[in-house]
Amino acid sequence: MKISYDTETFYADLVKHGLIIPTGVKGGYGRGAVFEDILRRFDNLVGRIAEPDGAEELMFPPILPRSLLDEVAYMNSFPQLAGSVHSFFGNEAKARELSTRVNGGERWEDLLDITEVMLTPAACYPVYPTFSGLLPTGGRLVTLLSWVYRHEPSDEPTRLQSFRVREFVRMGRPDDVVAWRDAWLQRGLELLGALGLPAQSDVAADPFFGRVGKMMAANQLDQRLKFEILVPVISQDKPTALCSFNWHQEYFTSKFRIRNADESVAHTACLGFGLERVTLALIKAHGFDPKTWPAHVKAQLWP
Question: Which three-class secondary structure state does DSSP give residue 75?
Answer without folding.
Answer: helix
